[in-house]
Every structure is written in C-alpha cells, then in structure tokens.
Amino acid sequence: MTVFRTISPIYGLFYSYQKRNFRKVLDAADEAMDFRRYNSVVDVGCGTGALASVLHSDGFLVTGIDVEPAMLRIGAAKPENQAICFRRESILEGLRLPDKSSDIALASFVAHGLSAPERQVMYAEMNRVASEYVILHDYNQRRSWFVDFIEWLEGGDYFHFIEHVRDELEQFFGSVQVLPMGVRSHWYICRSF
C-alpha cells in the first residue's frame, strides 16, 4: 500500500471537497432507503475519513477502517472527527470486530481496486460484521476516459469489476439494489444475511 502512503497528502487536500460530495450522496440515499434510521456504520477503506465524518455528523456511530496509517492520521487529526474510531486493519485479513456488530458495512471506491478473489473476501467480511446492509459505493458503466486511464495505470481489476459487479454481488448476496449516485457512480446495496 505504499502508493496510498505516497498520495495521502493529496487525498488530504480534497478532504472538504469529498465531504461535500458525500453529503449529496447520503442525502440522495436517505430519500431512497431511509438510510438514517440505522445507528452504526463501518466505513471500510475510509482513507482520510471524509465519508466517516459526514456519517458521524448525521449521528452515526462510525468505525473507519483503512490499511494506510498516513490516511488514518489525516482523518483523525480533523477536529470534527474526534469521536470517530479510526482503526488500522485490513478487510482482506479479517476485521477485529464482532459478528453483526454494525448495522451497515460500507466501502466507497474500494472494490474496483481489488482482484475478484479479494472482493469475495471483502464481501464475506463485510457481511459478517453488518447486521442489515452491505453497501458498495463505486463506479458504474459511465466512467470518464480520465478515470479509465488512471485505473489502467494502477493495474487493478477495475475493468472486470465494472463489467461484472452486479453479477458478482448477486451470486454472493442473492439480490442487489442499484441506486444511481451521480453520473459515474452507484450504490450497490446488498441485504446482509
């Protein structure tokens, strides 16, 4: 994860911008699924904590998980994030959280960067800790050429993910609700079992 250590200061520069975007996303999600009736969220791959911060400002008990300490330090240093529990853990190695300990497990723009087998591990672990929903906030089919280029450079499984995300999730969870969240992203909402 040295790439994220290297770019963490850049992510930090976009923290306020990300918070504004996540505010819009959560407002749209609330209209579609009464999102705010839940109490606790695990934010998997929380990065600098922008989404965790917005969730916390809405009254959620938030645990932010990330493998990169430099990202976590940026989020934890923000005055508005003092009540958020930031933890250095890897979803792929298993989280040190009890079964069904959170209402929702959410990962924003994480799944597309993992290989298909790694995503299966992530889905299983998110399902283990979530009592109600597993939500992926990630790209849809209408991506930009710039994102395509950056993802090609990173060499992840982005292109396969985009083509097969719904099928992958339906095989794992049985049913998936897809909620548009802007021009280039969706929420993939899976009921935990």
N→C terminal distance: 31 Å
State Rg: 15 Å
Name of the top-level CATH class: Alpha Beta
The biggest beta sheet reads: 7 strands, mixed
Fraction of residues in helices? Answer: 40-55%
Task: Output the helix-strand order.
Answer: HHEHEHEEHEHHEE
Side by side, the strands of the main sheet go 3-2-1-4-5-7-6
Give keywords.
193 residues; alpha/beta; Rossmann fold; 7 strands; globular
Care to describe what's here?
The protein has 193 residues and is of the alpha/beta class. The chain has a single domain, classed as Vaccinia Virus protein VP39 (Rossmann fold), CATH 3.40.50.150. 46% of the residues lie in helices and 23% in strands. The chain has seven helices and seven strands, in the order ααβαβαββαβααββ. The chain has helices spanning 2-13, 15-33, 50-57, 69-77, 116-129, 145-154, 158-173, and strands at residues 40-44, 61-66, 85-88, 102-108, 130-139, 176-180, 185-191. Strands 3-2-1-4-5-7-6 form a seven-stranded mixed beta sheet, with helices on both faces. A hairpin with a 4-residue loop joins strand 6 and strand 7. The longest helix is centred in the N-terminal third of the chain and has 19 residues, at 15-33. It is globular, with a radius of gyration of 15 Å. The N and C termini lie far apart (31 Å). 38% of the residues are buried.
